[in-house]
Amino acid sequence: MRGTPGAARVHILCAAVCAVLCALPALSPGAATPWGTLGLLAALHTACELPGRWRALGSSVPIAAGSFFPLLLAAAFLLPPSAAVLVAVPGALVGRVDRPPAAARRVWRASQLALTVGAASWTYAFLGGPATLGGASGGAVPDLPYALLPASATALVFSLVLAALDGGILVTAERVAVRHAWRGLPARSVGPHLVHALAGLMMAVLWHSSYGPLSALVVLLPMYISCWVFAQYHRQHAAHRATIRALVQAVDIKDGYTRGHSERVGRASELIARELGMEEDRMEALRFAGILHDVGKLGVPTRVLRKDGPLTPEERRVIELHPEYGHEIVRGIGFLDEARAAILHHHERLDGSGYPYGLAGDRIPEFARVVAVADAFDAMTSTRSYRRGRPVPAAVEELKRCAGSQFDPRMVRALARALDRHGWSATANTVTSDEEPAGLPRQRAGARPPAAGSPDRPGRPR
Fold first, then answer.
1. Is 347 exposed, middle or buried (0-12, 13-18, 19+ CB in 10 A)?
2. What local confidence, expressed as pLDDT, does residue 397 receive?
3. Which of 99, 175, 185, 402 has fewest C-beta within 10 Å?
């Protein structure tokens, strides 16, 4: 427990004591605990956890310590509460732990799962769930339609208790604010746990059938494989997010004016994409494009990015290379796909006067046209060190004024509709990008929009 905050130690100790108290009835003489069923379920759960400790498999193992919930819910359906408490303990104690302190984490996980399974089993017994399962020994047939109600209630209690305990450890060990610790936890977990409960109920029915416990493996194996696939999918997305986060942080460190800008451009790009009816995978790629649109600034000398006065023509040409630098930086990142084109072309203009290649009209990739509008919108509405941001309606009007020459009118209309529908909130007093979008300073009718730059920092390209 060394290195564990005092409040977390108390929290873990209380959970462990409560788990022991819940298990005591099963250990008392004459308790008639079904040790055969308990031992087999505990062994199966431990077998699901042990691969996580094989370093040869690395992070490809699908199940983290104590997380194979269909089997734990099957234990809640098959065993009395005091016995169900014990099923998860061996697997949680021997399962993989990635961060220290390992002992504290194992004790906490074992206690948490013991209490969660015990509460779920108590709920199932209270609602008369065991009577709906039948069994070969009694000659009864499982009453499946009626068995779904107590099983669903059991999954709900399982989810709520698990979320409550998770929030408690976040507050005590991770020092997360109380108002944030439980935010979204039950909502994210109830759906998956209902699916796990259905699989666990199928295992319990087969366990009680004339085919015996071996038949339950028919459910266990495919469910374990599906959990593996699901975990791999989330690990891959976590790796994608980590890659993008590292690149954005590098840009923020190099050019302090952009801090927060990238994330907001990604959010605005996603709003436009949703309004255009893009599919989810393209919408995510477009959000990545918005977040990474300025990653090429990593290739621009810091003295040029942070220069206070006007840029020389040579310095301007250097900054205008940042879309190409960005494209080169992300060229080998396969999951970005269409996002690479947006990074390269988000400074092109519809009339062909943009850079780096002077593309015009539909020759500019769709993603680039979306990001150009999102980038300009956030630059106008964000507060900078030298001026306050414009109100959202004023920014939208400016985008509409420049539509057709600089921006794609369809993208501008989509952003306007999305803002009417969802609104917009930018972090107050955020210092973001140091450039004003092209064409934004007011000018006389018929005049050509000026090159991208800021009235306060003339000639500075975006």
1. buried
2. 94
3. 99
358's tokens: 């002077």
Q: For residues 366 and 17, what is the distance between their CA atoms, to the nearest angstrom? A: 59
DSSP for 369-415, please give it: HHHHHHHHHHHHHS-BTTBPPPPHHHHHHHHHHHBTTTB-HHHHHHH
DSSP state of 427: -
Q: State the Cα–Cα distance between residues 431 and 448, nearest whole angstrom.
A: 29
Give CA–CA dist 79/448, Å, rounded. 78
Single out the residue of 87, 71, 55, 318 nearest to residue 203, CA to CA. 71
Residue 179 burial class via C-beta count within 10 angstroms: exposed 0-12, middle 13-18, buried 19 and up: exposed
Angle between helices 102-126 and 6-27 (to 10 degrees): 50
Give dist(CA 132, CA 380) in Å, integer.
Answer: 63
In this predicted model, what pLDDT tens digit does every residue of 245-301 receive, in sequence order?
Answer: 888 888 877 776 666 888 899 999 999 999 998 888 888 889 999 999 989 989 888
With respect to CATH, is domain 255-422 assigned 1.10.287.110? no
The ranges assigned to domains in the chain are 6-235, 255-422
Is the pLDDT confidence value at 143 over 60?
yes
Residue that has been written with the tokens 């089997």 in this structure: 71
219 to 70, 207, 223, 386, 457: CA distances (angstroms): 9, 10, 6, 63, 66
Q: DSSP class of residue 256?
A: G
d(CA 378, CA 140): 66
Q: Roughly what angle, to the nearest 10 degrees, separates helices 217-254 and 69-78? A: 140
Tell which wins on pLDDT, 239 or 107.
107
**CA distance linking residue 402 with residue 355, whole number of Å:** 17
